[in-house]
Amino acid sequence: MGRYGVPSRRFRPPLKRPSMEAFRRRLASVDALPQLCVLGVLSGLLTGGLMVVFRGALEFGALAFMPDGDPEAFERLAVPLRVVLPLIAVALIGLWLWRMPTSVGKIGIGHVIERLTYHQGKMPLRNWITQWWVGLVALLGGLSAGREGPAIHLGAAASSWIGQTMRLPHNSLRVLVGCGTAAGIAASFNTPIAGVIFAMEVVMMEYTITGFMPVILASTTGAVVSQLVYGSQPAFSVPSVQLASLFDLPWIAVTALLIGLVAGGFVRLARPAVWKKRLPMWGRFLAVGVAVAVLAWWYPQVQGMGYDSLERMLVGQPALDVLIAVALGKLALTALAIAFGVPVSIIGPILVSGAALGTLCGLLWATLMPELASSPVVFSLLGMAAMMGAVLQAPLAALMALLELTHNSSILLPGMLAVVIAVLVARQGYHCSGFFISTLDSQGLHPLQRPLMQALSRVAVPAVMERSVARAPRILTRAQAQELLAGKPTWLVVSRENDKPPVGLKAAGLARLMLDEQWQGETHFDLLEIPGQRVDMAPIALQATLSEAFEQLNKQRVDVLYVEHTTAPLIRKISGIITRDAIENYYRNK
């Protein structure tokens, strides 16, 4: 009780409001799960909205010349128009890419993987704009392409933009790219689980709890945004099917073996060869346009995404020649476009071609064993999953897509058999490590990170750096030195003239020197000349990951980095010191 019987109030310090700096600092560590989950929701909202805009732009463009404004109604177009459309498309894409640097023309899933591996998920704006143009023109122009590649690139880049705008640590940018990838797949196919698995298996190439949770939230949110506009139906309708008997399993194995061979051939054909690179750009693009136009003259089913053709396979039995054209022709046209430098998405075409090839095998099995054979629709679905798994070398993503599209768990048993056999045949028969990895390997890039670098890329520099640092001029008076040491810094960052990188000095060395009797008479100290442990240093950004710091240490051939960031225009502040020992200790003790 206080005076006069009035209860006394204890002093309570004001609550600290959460700041953006504290948010960034928390994200630098490996266990910032709540913060990453918030970012995952933001990523899903943004990506889902972008997918609605992309599909809306596609439908708006189709109103100009497609029957009923349907962007896939190439079969109902007049023959001259559907033949000339691919030529116009490659011309527009070629004009856009003409005289552009090669790096700006990189788009799609392969570009996302490259930026994630070599640039910590930072996505260039010019490539993002190029993806809008190429994605819309390729689909409206009747090239054999899908909308999943644009969805993934647009979503991943937009999600990365969130992190870059907020100046978040680069380890969180990597998670944001995974979030955008998952949300793009979920919003495009309406398959949120497959989106999550695809992001982790194909793009991020790792499974961690810290990565899973925000990616799940992003995928779910992206799917919800898409469903609010387009409904809850998947990209194409799938009837309810099941195996007639286990006697189908041997033929399913044969079908998967055939699909694995075709998938490996597709990856091999799509790889740019030396003789292809010798052709001029206009010649390569013209060859792609002419090839599509010639086949589309008789078989317009090879144009566009092909989801309408896929639905017809699942509800009926298209003509045999149409199935062959879609199974082999559409796959060959997609591979030719990629090999000749026309950046189209492959996921839609491989799904449709896999389904057509599976249908052909199912019809043959029904002819051989009419009383025992399951419906060809079963083989269509299994062929779709097997082709996706074999081309991408992503068996789990293919199985999850199969499950979510069919809503039928009984098809997982034959699905696992088909996917595993197809993946093994493509991998062993063609030494195929996946379409996107093979494509990047052919460019001299190696997207599979070493375990050390993969672990270090999950944590940013602020989580490990030494923050007890003081900036010091080269020449100090005794009074200035005492004032500097009063803050008990661990390191002194000593400035040098002519904009040379600063030098690191252990503060304990200066403290011992000032107590030494031999130096009691000194009034000034030259921090670059006095006895003490000095080290050369190189800069590293505050947002960098430990993998970037480790690479910078090796590149600059130093053992210490000073961490700097911009606090105002043209004003750089040193926030801490990170040493090679600190990074190695983190990896050993993680």
**Order of the strands making up the biggest sheet:** 1-3-4-6-7-8
Percent helix, as a range, is 55-70%
What is the number of domains?
Answer: 3
> Mean pLDDT, rounded to whole units?
89
Largest sheet entry: 6 strands, mixed
Strand content: 5-15%
Contiguous helical run count:
24
The counted number of beta strands is 8
Q: Kindly provide the radius of gyration, computed on alpha-carbon positions and rounded to a whole number of angstroms.
A: 29 Å
Question: What's the name of the CATH homologous superfamily of the largest domain?
Answer: Clc chloride channel
Determine the structural class based on helices, strands and strand pairing. Answer: alpha/beta
Membrane topology: Multi-pass membrane protein
Protein name: Cl-channel voltage-gated family protein
Pfam families: Voltage_CLC
Subcellular location: Membrane
SSE layout:
Elements (H helix, E strand, L loop, with lengths): L19 H8 L5 H30 L16 H19 L10 H11 L6 H16 L7 H18 L4 H20 L2 H13 L4 H22 L17 H23 L3 H5 L2 H18 L8 H9 L4 H20 L7 H22 L7 H17 L2 H12 L5 H19 L4 H8 L8 H6 L12 E4 L2 E3 H8 L5 E4 L8 E4 H9 L8 E3 L7 E8 L4 H11 L3 E9 L2 E9 H10 L1
Parallel strand pairs: 1-3, 6-7
Antiparallel strand pairs: 2-5, 3-4, 4-6, 7-8
Helix pairs in contact: 2-5, 2-6, 2-7, 2-9, 3-5, 3-12, 4-6, 4-19, 5-6, 6-7, 7-8, 7-9, 8-9, 8-17, 10-14, 10-15, 10-16, 10-18, 12-14, 13-15, 14-15, 15-16, 16-17, 16-18, 17-18, 21-22
Pfam families: Voltage_CLC
Organism: Chromohalobacter japonicus
GO molecular function, one term: chloride channel activity
